[in-house]
Known about the structure:
- This protein has twelve helices and 19 strands.
- By secondary structure, the chain is of the alpha/beta class.
- The strands form three sheets. Strands 1, 12, 13, 14, 15, 16, 17, 18 and 19 form a nine-stranded mixed sheet that branches. An eight-stranded parallel beta barrel has the order 2-3-4-5-6-9-10-11, surrounded by five helices. Strands 7-8 form a two-stranded antiparallel sheet.
- The longest helix is centred in the middle third of the chain and has 32 residues, at about 205-240.
- Helix 7 (about 120-130) links the parallel strand 5 (about 115-120) and strand 6.
Amino acid sequence: MTALAADRARYDRATAHLDAPLAIVDLDAFDANAEDLVRRAAGKPVRVASKSVRCRALLERVLARDGFRGIMSFTLAESLWLARSGFDDILLAYPSADRTGFAELAADPKLAGAVTVMVDDVAQLDLIDAARDGGREVVRVCLELDTSLKLLGGRVRVGARRSPLHSPGQLADLARSVARRPGFRLVGIMAYEGHIAGVGDSVAGRPLRSRAVRLMQAAARRELAERRAAVVRAVRAVVPGLEFVNGGGTGSVQHTAAEDAVTEIAAGSGLYVPRLFDNYTSFTGRPAALFAQPVVRRPGVGIVTVLGGGYPASGAAGRDRLPVPYLPEGLAYDPQEGPGEVQTPLLGSPADDLLIGDKVWFRHAKAGELCERFAALRLIEGDTVTATVPTYRGEGHTFL
């Protein structure tokens, strides 16, 4: 029996008493992935990206491990909810226009002490001030550095379009604006190098593209390390008491951790290891989060149909945004239909061994987005479901 066949047998045994659709997290794989992130961070704390987990119980589990410290959140409403739930170190990774949330933050010393908000424009400070509604708490602020690689005098740009702050001078200018402004305290710098951390450099069957990605990423790492160090020096000249410099992502943990200017690493997808993180030379994770759909039809030889399964991930539309049939091995989508909202035909010889009611296991393209489809995660240890825990959705929250 292959390792994948053994995993399938375990998952089927563990969930034999449960009807699909359902979602699981293999805790042995989850914990091994967490340990690998800490190893690659080489002594620098890992701030866990909640967007990639979206389950309070699993956030608590990973933060109880040595090597993890703090949460990187994705909306202000989520940040406030997590702070009220007892998490006390939350960095909001994206600017917000949630005026109600800012009024709550500025009025509550516990929330204001636990949550750090992201800014890259003075206009965002104006919005926060206008939303205070009498709240006088000091708002903790982090500046975001644009990590994109600019070539040919800026005519070629590689990287996500995030912050407009690219140069040390731009960040230092905004740091001075924050420092002069009552009601705010600058505590950190964040830089997410998505073109390095979130792009696989070893795509099966595409050797030329993979080599081009590796060359691009090597050049981007060198340029960013030099520029990030200069940014940190420039901002510390304005605010010597800066608390943290956050960088990285699952695919670049060890490279970012090697920079002296960085004090902590952000990572989250590396805990679940969705399919988009299969194509890296720098690490190999274990798929930990899966979902199962039940076989409901057998239309013919070499074909089964499962219920639902059309759960595409965000990003530029393409096949790489689709979930993939994972277990049993050897199943593929019908190219005329793909994964559907209410039914998904699957082709391949393993279909002939599947019966009505059997489970087909899938991997999502991205990590936490799977939790928007399910109210609960079944936690598996060995071949037993040891707990059922709610996702954000299961707790009544869909923050985006």
